[in-house]
Amino acid sequence: MTKRRKTTAKETILELLARSPRALSQDAIARKIDLPVNRTTIYRILNQFCEDGLAHRVVAGDGKQYFTLCGDCGGKRLPRHHFHFLCTQCGSLECLEQAVQFSLPQGYALEQMNCLLMGICAECAAGTQGVVAR
């Protein structure tokens, strides 16, 4: 990991990710922090966290990026390769505990994966249908 200078913005964003039970987009992070930082600075910090192995990025079908801490998504210890669920109603993205099982053809080497499931989250399902799907 590259030695990086500590800043208030980095510490604030890292603390926010650590407290969040769900992955957050840059927009959500910008709304939740009370610091005078622009979106470019937030993206640069998030990209550094990904490069340093502190966070991972999930890219939704529309290209929107979400970020969460590696191995400790929402306080849960998760396998390195796990599924993510994007709610098409409220826009929240959360890490799911199930490990992704896969195999590659001989000679292929995995560098990165993005396992995204999309649908209605339990909270939205409860609010619209009165039943929480589990």
Question: Could you characterize the architecture of this molecule?
Answer:
It is a single chain. The protein is 30% helix and 25% strand. With 134 residues, it is α+β, with helices and mostly antiparallel strands. The chain has one domain: Winged helix-like DNA-binding domain superfamily/Winged helix DNA-binding domain (Arc Repressor Mutant, subunit A, Orthogonal Bundle). The strands form three sheets. The chain has a three-stranded antiparallel beta sheet with strand order 1-3-2. Strands 7-6-8 form a three-stranded mixed beta sheet, with no helix packed on it. A hairpin with a 5-residue loop joins strand 2 and strand 3 (65-69). The radius of gyration is 16 Å and the shape is globular. Residues 129-134 have low confidence and may be disordered.
Describe the structure concisely.
The protein is an alpha+beta fold and 134 residues long. It is built from four helices and eight strands; from the N terminus they run H-E-H-H-E-E-E-E-E-E-E-H. Helix 2 crosses helix 3.
* CATH hierarchy class name: Mainly Alpha
> Could you tell me the mean pLDDT?
81
**Radius of gyration from CA coordinates:** 16 Å
Measured by DSSP, the beta-strand proportion falls in 15-25%
> Would you identify the CATH architecture?
Orthogonal Bundle
Shape: globular
Number of strands: 8
State the strand order across the main sheet. 1-3-2
**CATH homolog superfamily:** Winged helix-like DNA-binding domain superfamily/Winged helix DNA-binding domain
How many domains? The number is 1
Q: Helical region count?
A: 4
Q: Biggest β-sheet: count, sense, barrel?
A: 3 strands, antiparallel
What name is given to the CATH topology? Arc Repressor Mutant, subunit A
First-to-last CA distance? 38 Å
* Share of residues in helices: 25-40%
Low-confidence stretches: 129-134
Order of helices and strands: HEHHEEEEEEEH
Give the helix/strand class: alpha+beta
